Amino acid sequence: MIAIAQPPLQQEMSLLEKLTSVVSASRLNTFHTCRLKFYFRYVLGLVTSTSAAFFVGKAVHAALQQWSVARWKGQPHTAESLKVGFHENWVTAQTDDPVEWEEGKEDGHQAKAWALVETYLRDTPIAANEKPEAVEVRVEADLGEHGLPTLIGVLDLVRPGGRIVDFKTTAQTPQPAQAIHRNETQLTAYGLLYRAATGKRESGLELHHLVKTKEPKLAITSTGPVTLDQENKLYRSIESYVSGVEREDFVPSPGLQCIACEFFAECCAWKGGK
């Protein structure tokens, strides 16, 4: 049984103190990809419009969560019933998170999103009667013994025996070694979070990539339990994060990632100040 994280008691702290008292894999990845992007998102709290690709990913994720919850509860879960929930969520999700669709493009994106869900239901290695150990559960790990902040995160799915699954959508088929390396911070964090919540060692981790090609496909990359070397790398990454945030070291890292950055205009206008 996985223990659900409880919101920590918050005393009066500055924003930077809050950012260094609790850390997540997404914050770490943003900070180490581009510190100025981190500044815009987490310090200034700038809000940008949701992109079509990001919304499609969220819609697919919500449908797979519904599928996992139904299996966890032992409820019927046909493709038809999931499709009803998928279409309802597509509408309601835009109430609080509107998307600026290109004219006449929304229906096509919706159809592609559902095609990804159908592909997963058809090709998943997970049996229909396999009951998850946990679904979309928020957990935390106290890293105080390492002189580090609390680590938090959300586990998409934990299969029986402690096999952690993370769902992703992507435009290109991932190469296994690159997929593991690119997602190492997240996977390592998930392993440590699972251990903190259960007192057990995870049996392995899986990346389930739904690839948005003309004919959608599912690519699964598996790896073993988190190693001691991976733990140490995560700790060093967190140390660097905390040190940089405390120094307010928010500088840009221009590169290919700028093409899809939601803060491109703000970055170009940045003049080196805080």
Explain what this protein looks like in three dimensions:
This protein has helices at 15-21, 25-33, 35-43, 52-73, 79-96, 106-123, 176-182, 184-198, 228-246, 264-269; strands at residues 22-24, 134-141, 150-159, 163-170, 204-211, 217-223. The relative contact order is 0.17. 47% of the residues lie in helices and 16% in strands. It has a single domain (21-246), classed as Lambda Exonuclease, Chain A (Alpha-Beta Complex). Strands 1, 2, 3, 4, 5 and 6 form a six-stranded mixed beta sheet that branches. The protein is an alpha/beta fold and 274 residues long. Strand 3 (150-159) and strand 4 (163-170) form a beta hairpin. The longest helix has 22 residues, at 52-73.
Helix content: 40-55%
Distance between the termini: 45 Å
Q: Tell me the name of the CATH class.
A: Alpha Beta
Number of helical regions: 10
Task: Work out the oligomeric state of the chains in this entry.
Answer: single chain
Shape: globular
Task: Decide which structural class fits the backbone.
Answer: alpha/beta
The helix-strand sequence is HEHHHHHEEEHHEEHH
**Average of the residue pLDDT scores:** 93
Largest sheet: 6 strands, mixed
Strand content: 15-25%
Count the strands? Answer: 6
Q: What is the rounded Rg?
A: 19 Å
CATH architectural arrangement:
Alpha-Beta Complex
Count of distinct structural domains: 1
Uncertain stretches of 5 or more adjacent residues? none
Quote the CATH topology.
Lambda Exonuclease, Chain A
Task: Based on the model shown, name its key terms.
274 residues; alpha/beta; Lambda Exonuclease, Chain A; 6-stranded mixed beta sheet; 10 helices
